[in-house]
Amino acid sequence: MSTESSAYQSFKLWLAEYLPVDRDILHVLIGLMFLLTAVFASRHGLRLQQFARAFLGALLLAIAMEVLDRFDDLRSLGTWRWQASLSDIGRTVLFPAFGLIAAWCLSHLKRSP
Questions:
Q1: Rounded CA separation 34/55 (Å)
Q2: Cα(30)–Cα(34) distance, rounded to whole angstroms?
Q3: pLDDT (tens digit per residue) in 19-68
Q4: Does residue 37 contact residue 54 with C-beta atoms inside 8 Å?
Q5: Which helix (H) or strand (E) holds 63?
Q6: Cα radius of gyration (the chain)
Q7: Which helix (H) or strand (E) holds 72?
Q8: Is this model's pTM higher than 0.90 or not?
Q9: Which helix (H) or strand (E) segment is 38 a member of?
Q10: Which end of the chain is least crowded, N or C, by CB within 10 Å?
């Protein structure tokens, strides 16, 4: 097994040196960034589309990050830590999912007589 870090892992280690947060919290913060982007994009009225885009963007970024982690896991550990990957994806999309659900509920309440 190789102990060399990939460029992606090196970047994550560098980022961890400068951000005083746990790596799990970093996933939550990334999701919050997507949610806040949707909120600011929808400031002139609720737009379900903006929250759907935020959720999809967070999901795609989370999957991409975990694909890179998978390659590093296989190279360094010989096995993929898929449970950790699923947890990281869940943490990343948590707040965008709440935002999407809230936007969907509010848009359907507006349509009700």
A1: 7
A2: 7
A3: 888 888 888 999 999 999 888 887 777 788 889 999 999 999 999 999 99
A4: yes
A5: helix 48-76
A6: 17
A7: helix 48-76
A8: no
A9: helix 23-41
A10: C
